[in-house]
Design goal:
Layout: H1 3-8, E1 10-13, H2 19-29, E2 35-39, H3 40-46, H4 49-56, E3 61-67, H5 71-83, E4 88-92, H6 97-111, E5 117-121, H7 129-134, H8 141-154, E6 159-161, H9 167-174, E7 179-182, H10 201-207, E8 211-214, H11 216-219, H12 224-238
């Protein structure tokens, strides 16, 4: 794998607090990572301008808002996400087949091929078997993740967000063309923080991940650009 291919797999998590921070990180890391993730906190604080600020620097965006509501509401929200010109947008697979299918159909009807890739969140990387039991799900985490991934594919989604430990099972169940975006990735030089189900970047890509969401190992580094380069080297050097 080339360094350019490895770089394009990295999605930097913009876990910051305002437009000035977005502007600074986008200016610093565009060209060193493949995409920037705008999540709930940042979008609630700054709105669509969070996305536009990244785009002004030439950066691509994964809009990580994890929609989960009645089908019509989610479909309208996903269409509005597509209007922002993002590359990836997501919803919660636990919303069910009708919710996912309605959203996927609405975005395809409005934008055709010029649309973001649509992702479904399976099981959060902070979740454990006990977390699932507390909400009445008795099945193991991996089994639920694969089940939700199959449902997402059948509902017209382009891929899923899933823990590194479920990558191989989801790839086997859903095929090569189904996108897998993987948080819970920690390079060899970084701490685990609050993630429970993790792999190194090279391990995750070798297992079949298409994109890796990485935040604190870059953001907390003394030199974030150098940390990005180290991750790129780790991926490129560890993957065929």
């Amino acid at each position: 794998m080339t360094n350019e291919q490895a770089r394009d797999k990295i999605i930097f998590a913009l876990d910051v607090h305002g437009l000035a921070d977005i502007d600074r990180w986008s200016a610093q890391l565009t060209g060193h990572v493949g995409m920037f993730k705008v999540g709930k906190e940042l979008f609630t604080s700054c709105g669509p301008e969070a996305v536009r600020t990244v785009q002004r620097h030439g950066g691509q965006v994964f809009l990580d808002l994890k929609y989960h509501d009645i089908p019509n509401t989610v479909a309208k929200a996903m269409v509005e996400a597509a209007r922002l010109g993002v590359q990836l947008a997501n919803l919660h697979a636990l919303g069910g087949e009708e919710m996912m299918a309605t959203a996927a159909a609405a975005v395809r009807k409005e934008f055709g091929d010029e649309r973001p890739r649509l992702l479904a969140v399976t099981i959060l990387t902070s979740s454990t078997a006990e977390t699932l039991r507390q909400v009445g799900i008795e099945r193991p985490v991996e089994e639920m993740a694969v089940r939700l991934a199959r449902l997402a594919k059948d509902s017209g989604m382009d891929g899923v967000v899933a823990s590194p430990l479920e990558i191989e099972s989801i790839r086997a169940a859903c095929g090569r063309d189904f996108l897998i975006v993987t948080p819970g990735v920690r390079p060899s030089f970084a701490s685990l923080d609050d993630q429970k189900r993790v792999m190194t970047p090279a391990e995750a890509v070798t297992a079949g991940a298409d994109y890796l969401v990485i935040g604190r190992p870059i953001a907390k580094a003394a030199d974030p650009v150098e940390a990005s380069r180290m991750i790129v080297d780790e991926i490129a050097g560890g993957c065929p």
